[in-house]
Amino acid sequence: MQVTPFIHSPRSFTAAARFFVVCCGVFILGACGGGGSDSNSSPGNSALAVNAGPDATVTEGVTYTLSGSVTGGDGTYTYNWTASPTLDITHDDTSTSSASFVAPSVNESTSYTITLAVNDASGNSTSDATIITVAPINIDPVADISVPQWSGLPANNFPGGVNIVLDGSGSSDADAPANTNAIASYTWSQTSGTNVITGVETNLSTLSITTPIANDPQTLEFQLEVVDSEGASDTALVSLSIQSEAETLPEANAGFSQGVFSGEVIVLNGQASTSIPAAEPLQYSWERSSIATSSLSGTTGSNQDNSDPASTLVSIKAVDDSDALSTFAIAPAVSSATVVTYTLTVTDANSNSVEDTISVRIQPMPTALVNDTGFLQQATNNALTQAQQNDFPGQDGQRGSDIIEQNGLIEKAGRGKAGFDFTRLNANGDEQDADAQTWSCVRDNVTGLVWEVKTDDGSVRDVNFTYSWYSEEVNGGFEGDQVGMAATCLLTNCNTTAYVAEVNSQGLCGFFDWRMPTHKELFSLMHLGDVSGVAIDEDYFPNTGAPSSAPLWYWSSVPSADGVNSDDAQNSWALDFDSGVDNFLNKSTAARVRLVRAGR
Fold it and tell me: Are 261 and 331 in contact (CB under 8 A)?
């Protein structure tokens, strides 16, 4: 008798076994009573049957062992485990049923159908399945409240009437599923103190509140509840101490520390506020620290008083307006690098005072090697003004020789407007008195250059004569216009080289080394702050030309890369002493010339 093989599940195993026993019983009875059948049948001749094991429930992260059983077949078996959904099953020896897997992390209970397939050496095969359910283990989230630190106060202490933000974004969930928010929801509540959360968003990761203003100190308590994506929750509490109205101090900010030269502007642009309306108005006061006597310079000005280390220069205010929030000071003259402090004191109507200090490093003004621009005006968004502009620091009118001279801290060898320092020279090159009525040249005591002074007498140096640009040496590949047909002068060829040769042949001021100035040298004469006339100090350089609709172009010795034709520079740089701008002109252009010599 041949028994038909069958596939069963664990839940039907008992019934199947009973059926199998009955069938076997029938078979045995038949054999016993049949009289010719072999009653000693081998296992290989019986049906192949497999049991994958019982259904089970395990928790995530647990290592679960699989073990099935098999009957029938020829006794040599090959085992193979599979799972749906897929699991990483460890099964090193397929000749045994023993295998294992680690229960994966899950957000909710998840069932896996695990199938054991068996083959014997005779080609028989069968399979059975078991259901393994993996249950999640949820780690509770951790609620966390971060509290800002208020400057000058202990932790969790705050003035009245200020805005603070409690931050719960640091809350965490150790087993948060990938690609999901660790915290699913935030809920803020106030558990003690004056209510400050009415009308405030309480379901965000942060809570923004304004501390109460009261006659007495306050204690506020807040709770944050967080819930993770698996439904677990945690809470955190924080307690804040709030100052009374009278205890709450104003705030003061003295601005930024600076480095300046003696005589330059120190910007004192403070900020002050109070969160208590009844504490207004605020009062302000600026004060400079003492300066050691050894650091004060005694060489600039006759009005300086060095007898008191804390004294300021009599001719210069330590602070322009010491009771203004935004004001300025003039850096005192010092003999060596000196650090001084400026302190802003803010006092409220409750007589509470706070201070803030900035450091200012003052250095002696070094010997200037180039002239400043002469510009002392300062700009706002829409205007020019002589007034100090603290909201626009670092302007030309706040820095450099011009403002230092205006503040009386430059000692000149000669005279001149703004930071310029000129000396008049006679026809022999000797110094003239400052009030001399005639002179031929001017020495710039800053740059060391000696300059030609133009005439208006029709002689060779007359201001109205013009010249084309011409140079046989440094010319950018093109010598220029030798004839100067558009120019007018007393020479045969009205060009710059011819003019230089003529002046040197005459020995102007006793010198025979006159030359064309460079762009930088010529620009050093520009007085951009003199808006009433031409852009030069006419007390020393008369006959420069009259302001008009036409520019007052003066040639420099520098060819221009603009206007290149076949690698030859057709243009050269010139400066307009009417507008103060520079530009490149074609070398045939008729323009004026002012010669220079010497220099540092």
Answer: yes
**Count of all residues that appear for the chain in the document:** 600
* pTM of the model as a whole: 0.68
In sequence order, the 6+-apart residues with CB closer than 8 A to the CB of 81 are: 66, 89, 91, 99, 114, 115, 116, 117
- Go through 327-340 and write b for each residue having 16 or more CB atoms within 10 A of its CB, e for each that does not: bbbbbbbbeeebeb
599 φψ region: left (φ > 0), alpha (ψ -120 to 50), beta (else) = left
Bridge partners, residue 82, by sequence: 115
Which residue in 439, 436, 444 sits closest to 425, CA to CA? Answer: 439
- Using CA atoms, how far apart are residues 575 and 374, in angstroms rounded to an integer? 16
Beta-bridge mates of residue 201: none
pLDDT tens-digit series, residues 538-560: 999 999 998 887 899 999 999 99
The residue to which tokens 């030798």 are assigned: 482
Domain annotation for the chain: domains and CATH numbers? 10-135 (2.60.40.10), 157-242 (2.60.40.10), 254-406 (2.60.40.10), 412-600 (no CATH)
Between the alpha carbon of residue 473 and those of residues 266, 333, 479, the distances in Å are 49, 48, 7
Q: What is the pLDDT of residues 180-213, one digit of tens each?
A: 888 999 999 999 999 999 999 999 999 999 999 9
Handedness of CA 371, 376, 377, 380 (dihedral sign): positive
Res 137: pLDDT = 84
- In this prediction, residues 382-410 reach a mean pLDDT of 93
List alpha helices for 486-591, DSSP H: 496-506, 519-523
Least confident piece of the model among 27-31, 372-376, 381-385, 511-515: 27-31
Exposure on the CB side of residue 422, measured as CA atoms within 13 A: 26
CB-count burial class (<10 Å; 0-12, 13-18, 19+) for 430: exposed
Q: Answer for the pair 561, 469: CB distance below 8 angstroms, yes or no.
A: no
Mean pLDDT, rounded, for 70-97: 94
> Among residues 310, 257, 253, 317, which one has the least CA distance to residue 284?
253
Query: Is-contact 193 236, C-beta < 8 A?
Result: no
pLDDT at 65 over 80: yes
User: Which whole number is the average pLDDT over 520-545?
Assistant: 94
CA distance 495 to 473: 14
Measure the CA–CA gap between 26 and 137, rounded to whole angstroms.
52
CA–CA dist 124, 122 (Å, integer)? 6
* Separation CA 296–CA 292 (nearest Å): 7
Per DSSP, the three-state class of 221 is strand
Pair of tokens at residue 202 = 């309480």
Residue 316: which pLDDT band, with cuts at 50, 70 and 90?
low
Strand-pair partners of 48: none
Amino acid of residue 8: H
Query: Closest Cα partner for 228 from 105, 167, 139?
Result: 139
- How does residue 600 score in pLDDT terms, banded at 50, 70 and 90? low
- Taking only Cα atoms into account, the Rg of the chain, rounded to an integer number of angstroms, comes to 49
- Please name which of 429, 442, 437 lies closest in space to residue 524, comparing C-alpha atoms: 442
pLDDT at site 317: 63
* Alpha helices by DSSP H, 311-433: 401-406
